[in-house]
């Protein structure tokens, strides 16, 4: 079996954004309108996904040699019991498998092996990742601005936004906020429809959806699938996993991929599935919803339910009339898998797969990236959205500004009018150290909100909305006014209550010192957020790093006294706190004179104190110290960029290597032998389906 790709941690598909439907604004259709022969043909052959187990246990096969294809103009349902591998199949096709699994087989897009990531396809995941502070209309409008062509006029763009709102039935809640931890917003079903709206907005050539109807009532589910069918009829390829659709919803699908424990039970036209089940000996009763029947026949969990009921003697009458109905679901499932393999449906599928595998590029549409907006428009849109989010999210900056004001007042009252006495030497230095080195530490408080924004970034990046550089730059620009506000309130309150120095230029330096220090903490937390998966771990790791940086800032242990190896160089050298404190003390003390310890002795000069008391060299000016903080700030931002880029580019390569190594090891192990498609009776407790047939519901 050929290795196609390693489990691809974070890369994946994205909003095709390749054009518009015929009814939509003219000028951005890409030639895949209804009736066009061009489109996205997706083929997968011998697709297996395994969860390697390097200890003695067996290796779990999540998908087992699947074959299938998807064509433009059609909508496919992936159905199967919970845990059957629906999401895994979608993730494998979209190149979004998690890192711990290994994929083998071929995935061909228009006859070619191609990584379907970062804008090649659109993927609506099971989890809705949205900015809670935005309204439904704002969310769709920003998404449209980020991705629709820059050449499109404002009116055209607005009309697409309004059409999409109506198309997804979101008109009633269009101006309501989505909601977050402190704000009750739109319902779960509305969120789901909004997530779908964001992806169909650009009419992507290939659209994946993971359970788009979960949490929706039957009318909404019908509405959503009908809309998806319309998208497909527009010449797009739509693949969606779905849980127990109603018969009306099921009838909307063109193709069906029925999965059970990672194996194909049926793949073909949805309307032929009933015929296949009848041929296989498990016909669908006339008054039963076909999808319910299919799932009931293949869901091995029914065996456990029946066993429990039998055990508790709640199940007594087992009709014996139909011999097939006396088989266990596990056995029926295995029969279906076997029958499908040699059925006309499988033969037909194999033939079509062969045809589609050799399809020329001339049949294919040009694969465009997820966004057709210019870099500048993306930046402008992101800055606007991010600024709006920051101004509406109380936890992002507002709460911090309040805390900074409160703490500044505390500092101001504790060190009030510090003066030039002998004791003021220590008071001034410790106050400066507290403000630049420790108060800035409170910037960690905005981390949870930043992590939320990062989640949206990851989703949008995977769907190809915009690049890493645009995100980083937009975040810096939109956070700038808030950081300036924090700096000004902190700097002004503390500077003038403590009465550091009357000269305005010293006040400006004091504020610049605070601003750069806070910006460094923000950037450091961004680096942490890109490396650590959740915000609790992020806060712990971030606080730990900051603790180390503070310890080496030259306040708790003077810089010359720090152990040279490691702590002085490089740690204190890389610590923004050491530069911040050096610059702050120089800014305050140089040029001042202080009372001596004993009256009558000469006054103590600021420069002397800096050198002798604090061990700070005066070979460079305070502006060099400030420049060093700016350099650290730039380094952190570049590091953040490099990490995000590295995750995108290099990690798939590492994962391919991991997959190759894992497969080499696994092939040596007996547990990796191909699983028999027909399960052994010895290992599967069998309980007949007839016992379930006697019940209205298999559950008590
Ligand atoms: N990265 C992974 N690591 C370990 N196990 C995994 C991983 N991905 C999937 N699985 C396992 O593979 C099986 C299939 O998972 P999958 O999420 O594809 O099921 P599903 O059909 O989408 O289920 P549901 O309908 O509940 O969403 C499950 O048993 C799951 O625990
Ligand atoms: Mg799933």
From TrEMBL:
Annotated InterPro entries: AAA+_ATPase, ABC2_TM, ABC_transporter-like_ATP-bd, ABC_transporter-like_CS, ABCG_dom, P-loop_NTPase, Plant_ABCG
One cellular component term from this protein's GO annotations in UniProt: membrane
Keyword Translocase among record annotations: no
Region called Disordered, residue ranges: 1-33, 672-700
Keywords per UniProt: ATP-binding, Membrane, Nucleotide-binding, Phosphoprotein, Transmembrane, Transmembrane helix, Transport
SMART domains linked: AAA
Subcellular location as annotated: Membrane
Membrane topology annotation: Multi-pass membrane protein
A GO MF label: ABC-type transporter activity
Domain ABC transporter: 42-286
Ranges that cross the membrane: 397-418, 425-445, 465-495, 507-529, 535-559, 566-585, 623-644
Family per record: Belongs to the ABC transporter superfamily. ABCG family. Eye pigment precursor importer (TC 3.A.1.204) subfamily.
Name this protein carries in UniProt: ABC transporter-like
Source species taxonomy: Eukaryota, Viridiplantae, Streptophyta, Embryophyta, Tracheophyta
